[in-house]
Amino acid sequence: MTIRITWGRAVAAFVTLALAGLLFAWSGIFNIAASSGHWPVTDWFLHWAMRNSVRTHAAFSVPKDAADPTGMVSAAGHFDASCAICHGAPGRRPSPVMQAATPPAPDLAVNAREWSDRQIFWILRHGVKYTGMPAWPALDRTDEIGRMTAFVRALPTMTQARYETLVGRATMTAARADPIAACVGCHGADGRGRGQRDIPVIAGQNAAYLHATLRAYATGRRASGVMAQAAAPLDDATMRRLADRFAAMPASGPSRPATPDAAAVRIIADGLPDRQLPACASCHAPGRSPLYPKLAGQRAGYIAARLRGWQAEEGTPDARLPQDAMPAIARRIPEDMIDPLARTLAAGMR
């Protein structure tokens, strides 16, 4: 007997299967318990699909120089606070509770070898659905993601001693009881950033500015995956205490260059009217407002990196909004003036 396949029968079969699937889901028979794990074929298929997806998307959307090894201290601090509980760290086992997830977070000391820098970058930026791996909290902060990419790449060969040096071993335990100790892990006991070019000098900064900045990171009005994680658990009183503590520390003295850059001095004092670039001094001059940061004594490399980061942010900023003012302003600065301007601001020229 030959069964003739027609369009009507095909549609009926499809609808029947769809209804059967809905009935099965409605019944609650399917076991979604993490303790049940996946069938081996399901586990294979999900990981196969994930790896193919990561390879494809990373190849088309991530630059070849994805890893930035110059900011290992800030990356280590974020990893210790946010990632080690699931993935473990050199000399530390992951949380048994987190390892009871389905699927459990992989051991990056092994797993990182299986991915390229571009693929690690893509996973860190976008996360992975249905695995518990979150996206980076600030998608536009590709500078932070690049530093974390380099840190993850180094994990397979990183010793416990190296990890503890990067994190600041003396602060790891104290940070659980004292938020200031957590800040010191990256910013240093003197507030000068442990010599890292991606960590700002906050010693001697305006207390009002530091307090406002912490609140902005905690509420998402200012973008940083690292600082959002650090600021979110803090209440307002603790933020004020931290701001007052670092503001009271001795500030770094500006080191004046032998020959000031005339074009940079002009931008600081007068701006560039033809480019609608306001003068830096209109906001950042000493005594102008405690809600704007002091730039004299800041690292020139940090200032330059932030200006370039604002220039590269996606989307159209609205200069009328405080959180969008700097991206709008930075995009009007000529590229060849960023480094001279940063050096001049750091030196206290005005």
Number of helices: 18
Q: Please identify the oligomeric state.
A: single chain
Order of helices and strands: HHHHHHHHHHHHHHHHHH
> Structural class of the helix and strand makeup?
mainly alpha
Q: At the first level of CATH, what is the class of the largest domain? A: Mainly Alpha
Shape: elongated
Query: Main beta sheet: strand number and arrangement?
Result: none
- Low-confidence residue ranges: none
Give the number of DSSP strands. 0
- The CATH topology annotation of the largest domain reads as Cytochrome Bc1 Complex, Chain D, domain 2
Reported CATH architecture of the largest domain = Orthogonal Bundle
- What percentage of the residues does DSSP assign to strands (E)? under 5%
Mean pLDDT: 87
- What is the radius of gyration computed over CA atoms, rounded to a whole number of angstroms? 25 Å
Number of domains in the coordinates?
A: 3
Q: How many angstroms does the end-to-end distance come to?
A: 94 Å
- Work out the helicity level: 40-55%
Organism: Alterirhizorhabdus solaris
GO molecular function: electron transfer activity; heme binding; metal ion binding
Domain Cytochrome c: 64-156, 163-250, 266-349
Protein name: Cytochrome C
